[in-house]
Specification:
The complex is a heterodimer of chains A (518) and B (314).
Chain A lengths: L3 H16 L15 E6 L14 H7 L7 E3 L5 E3 L2 E6 L5 E6 L13 H14 L1 H7 L2 E8 L2 E6 L6 H6 L10 H7 L13 E7 L3 E6 L23 E6 L3 H10 L4 E5 L4 H5 L4 E5 L4 E7 L9 H9 L3 H9 L5 E2 L25 H11 L5 E7 L3 H16 L3 E7 L1 H8 L7 E6 L22 H12 L3 H18 L2 E7 L2 E5 L2 E2 L13 E2 L3
Parallel strand pairs in A: 1-10, 1-11, 15-16, 15-17
Antiparallel strand pairs in A: 2-3, 4-5, 5-7, 6-7, 8-9, 9-10, 11-19, 12-19, 13-17, 13-18, 14-18, 20-21
Chain B lengths: L1 H28 L4 H6 L5 H11 L5 H13 L13 H36 L4 H15 L2 H15 L15 H35 L2 H8 L4 H38 L5 H10 L3 H29 L7
Helix pairs in contact in B: 1-12, 5-6, 5-8, 5-10, 5-12, 6-8, 7-8, 7-10, 8-10, 9-10, 10-11, 10-12, 11-12
Classes of the chains: A alpha+beta (518), B mainly alpha (314).
């Protein structure tokens, strides 16, 4: 008896040592409930994901809408609404078996009718969809859970294309598509973990948990796997002023603020209540050449532009703190399996003499280079202002035209109006999706060899073959000076520390995240 | 009097016509169009052209303006491209925060401006006068977005007294609505108060030099009665004119203030519609603002009669 309390204590200590690490702590346990308040930079141009390539629409509606596929953290496509899929031996026919019992937000069960109507609409109106559907012979639905896509020629990236985030091929009920006609959808219904409730312009967009959500069973990975809607509601609130977004998060009025100036990073890092979050995927800052203009259509002039650049100076001026940018030759970012440094000798040359010589060879006579840029995205305008004197040192005459973004986008569509324009490219999952290599996109870079290699790139799925091909493509692109990549940059977001489980690949993923009790 | 009001209201029509026509050309001749904004940065030229065609933006300008006149004459201001609702509805939805903000700023402006002007005039050429006019100068010179951000920093972030941004409609909470408008109203009102203070001071100085003020003092009236009863009332007419003009300034200032404080008002509607080239909304708001500006000034003219019975409109 005398020893019992001692033994009991010893046993308790041992048990505690063994068991406590196994028990989830309160901080790790997801908490259901509450409303997530997100301060975003503005209003989406439309909420119809098929219509627009604007990122903000995707940020919001990706929580409402789902497609057949989505990408994981490695940017590989994984099924979402699809249960199983097969590819025919001739690699021309994809057969998708849909998941059974998936419900739309209006309570109706999703069938192949809805999928067929959605894919066909996406193929009709989305920029990427139209590109893909040029290669589609037919979409058919032999039964309620089967959809068959027949292609003209093999395309290895179909699941990736259907699952990519930008202007995503999401599934709407057929009746929603029918009532939209040639216009935008009027009701925002899909199968996602949150359902659309209301849009009060300049006040908020509200999403509520969809109680009938049919989650997958696989572990969450990027935008794939199991999705939990822990919040009762998500509010997306347009707050145009970055300083006010920061103040709102500090004060606890918002939990999350989209896009914060990188200069704020060091100051925000010291606040124990806040988490300054640097995105893991790189975008690139760029100056696009007009290959149809008499000046920039000249390869030597493009090469002269490339030779004159001190890219570190450009990126430092545009993004400041070196945590937020890097000079890297890869058109696919370092984190991607296709990354290569082919053509690195053309990057960051800082060689005005060579530029001068190339201009002389090109027969350049001081015609002004019309460069349209904007201060609406400060980095674009800043970069252009820093590059201008570099070009002038090499003998270029630069006519820098600073306009608002809407003007820039309208002007760049007309080849007679410009020679160079500023923009940025967000991360894409495959070179096939890179805009600057598409002959249809403003800039109109159209090189026969490049187009031929691009066709091969679409057909092949073997990573080794694709990597070799991509190295040659990137090298050619640099030799040709198709467009200038100044460097990679990373975006800063800010959130409160009680927001847990947030994931930023492939885009904002607020499902599976929750608010810890403060 | 009523004849005068009717004539002034009729004179409103050509004003609106001129505003509408000039506005139409200004907007349509600005490069950029809603189609490319809506389709986003990655859209191809072909996609943008298709949408332009669908929206009817590829038709000749003259056809577009005639159609717009036709619709407007029928009282239809059109349909917003981005908001998916009639322009009139879009404006009315935004009216509450803007009207509330304008009124609250006006109250702030008058409460600060008139006493400051009176004190400066009564104590003219003393340090009180110089301090008051210094503050007024500061109010005129300070950019409202900067002043607004500083107010947010002090009163919201550090002291936690008011919300940082956003608006709570009256129907949801009356106190919430007021709380969300205090900082924006101070931001806007402080700027406007400076103008009112300067005008009050100079017209008070003029009136205080008049014979009847000397007479009032000679009768042995208290200085307070002389200043507020005899002088201020007579000095109010030029001040009132400035208050009317300030109303117009407040509407314009609301564009910046509503953007900083993320208030869903008419000012914010203007700026976002201009940025994304939502032509019908910009046109509609222009008409609305021009109309209300003229209307407020008419109201001020009518108020003159009550302040000064000698004024008569034939």
């Amino acid at each position: 008896m005398r020893y019992l309390p001692g033994r009991a204590v010893a046993l308790a200590v041992v048990l505690a040592l063994v068991l406590i690490p196994l028990m989830p702590t309160a901080a790790q346990q997801p908490r259901r409930g509450g409303a997530l308040r997100i301060a975003h930079i503005g209003e989406p141009p439309t909420l119809d994901q098929h219509w627009t390539t604007a990122a903000i629409t995707g940020h919001i509606m990706y929580h409402v809408n789902e497609g057949l596929f989505a990408v994981n953290r490695k940017f590989e496509p994984k099924p979402v609404l699809v249960d199983k899929w097969t590819l025919s031996p001739d690699r021309m026919t994809y057969t998708f078996t849909l998941r059974k019992g998936v419900k739309f937000h209006n309570g109706k069960e999703m069938t192949s009718e809805d999928v067929k109507a959605s894919l066909e609409r996406w193929g009709r109106i989305a920029t990427r969809g139209r590109g893909l559907f040029a290669n589609v012979v037919s979409v058919s639905n032999p039964d309620a859970l089967t959809v068959v896509m027949k292609l003209r020629e093999p395309y290895a990236l179909l699941p990736l294309d259907l699952g990519w985030v930008g202007q995503s091929a999401v599934i709407f009920p057929k009746e929603v598509i029918d009532e939209a006609g040639t216009g935008m959808v009027k009701r925002f219904i899909s199968t996602g973990p949150y359902r659309f409730v209301e849009h009060l312009p300049d006040r908020h967009i509200r999403l509520d948990r969809f109680e009938g959500y049919a989650a997958r069973t696989e572990d969450p990975d990027g935008a794939t796997g199991r999705k939990h809607a822990y919040f009762d509601s998500i509010y997306i609130i347009p707050v145009p002023d970055a300083a006010v977004r920061i103040a709102g998060v500090k004060r606890g009025e918002f939990h999350f603020a989209e896009t914060i100036p990188p200069d704020e990073y060091d100051r925000l890092r010291t606040d124990p209540d806040l988490v300054p979050f640097i995105t893991e995927t790189a975008s690139w800052l760029t100056a696009v050449f007009n290959n149809r203009s008499p000046l920039m259509g000249n390869r030597k002039i493009r090469q002269a532009f490339q030779a004159a650049l001190d890219q570190e100076a450009v990126m430092r001026a545009a993004y400041g703190n070196p945590r937020f940018w890097r000079i890297d030759p890869g058109l696919m970012p370092k984190e991607h399996y296709l990354w290569t440094d082919a053509g690195k000798e053309f990057v960051n040359q800082k060689n005005p003499e060579r530029a001068r010589q190339l201009l002389a060879e090109a027969g350049y006579k001081g015609e002004p280079i019309r460069w349209i840029t904007t201060m609406e995205y400060v980095a674009y305008g800043t970069a252009a202002q820093v590059v201008k004197p570099m070009l002038e040192r090499a003998g270029f005459v630069v006519d820098l035209q600073v306009v608002d973004w809407a003007t820039l986008v309208a002007r760049r569509a007309r080849p007679e109006l410009w020679d160079v324009f500023s923009t940025a490219f967000s991360f894409v999952a495959d070179p096939v999706l890179l805009l600057s290599l598409q002959p249809t996109w403003p800039g109109w870079y159209d090189n026969r060899d490049m187009n031929a290699m691009m066709t091969l790139m679409r057909r092949h799925s073997d990573p080794k073959v694709r990597h070799d091909l991509w190295k040659r493509m990137q090298k050619l692109w640099y030799e040709d000076a198709g467009t200038i990549k100044f460097g990679d940059y990373f975006v800063l977001h800010l959130f409160r520390k009680e927001l847990k489980g947030y994931v930023n690949i492939p885009t904002h993923v607020w499902w599976n995240s929750w608010l810890d009790a403060r | 009097m009523s004849g005068y009001i009717v004539r002034r209201l009729i004179a409103l029509l050509p004003v609106l016509l001129i505003v509408a026509t000039v506005g139409f050309f200004l907007i349509y001749l600005t490069p950029g169009d809603p189609a490319s904004v809506m389709l986003g940065p990655d859209a191809t030229t072909e996609d943008v052209e298709n949408l332009r065609h669908l929206m009817g933006l590829d038709r000749p300008l003259i056809v577009q303006i005639l159609r717009w006149y036709g619709r407007t004459l029928r009282g239809d201001l059109g349909y917003s491209i981005f908001l998916q609702r009639p322009v009139v509805q879009a404006i009315f939805e935004r009216l509450q925060p803007t009207v509330m903000l304008t009124l609250m700023s006006l109250i702030v402006a008058v409460l600060i401006g008139i006493p400051t002007g009176v004190v400066a005039a009564v104590r003219r050429n003393t340090w009180v006068d110089q301090a008051a006019m210094g503050v007024a100068l500061l109010g005129v010179s300070m950019p409202s977005f900067w002043f607004g951000l500083n107010l947010i920093l002090v009163f919201s972030v550090y002291l936690g007294l008011f919300p940082v941004a956003g608006y709570v409609p009256l129907a949801e909470s009356v106190s919430g609505a007021f709380r969300s408008l205090v900082l924006p109203a101070v931001t806007l009102g402080f700027g406007a108060s400076a103008l009112i203070a300067r005008m009050t001071r100079s017209s008070m100085l003029e009136v205080l030099g008049q014979d009847y003020i000397r007479t009032a003092r000679a009768k042995g009236n208290l200085e307070r009665i002389v200043v507020y009863h005899h002088a201020l009332r007579n000095a109010m007419i030029p001040t009132l004119t400035v208050v009317g003009l300030a109303m117009g300034g407040l509407l314009a200032g609301a564009i910046v203030t509503e953007t900083v404080f993320a208030l869903p008002g008419v000012g914010r509607l203007v700026i976002s519609s201009v940025m994304r080239r939502d032509y019908p909304v910009v046109q509609g708001v222009l008409m609305f603002v021009a109309g209300s500006y003229v209307f407020v000034n008419l109201l001020i003219d009518v108020l003159y009669v009550y302040l000064d019975p000698r004024i008569k409109y034939a």
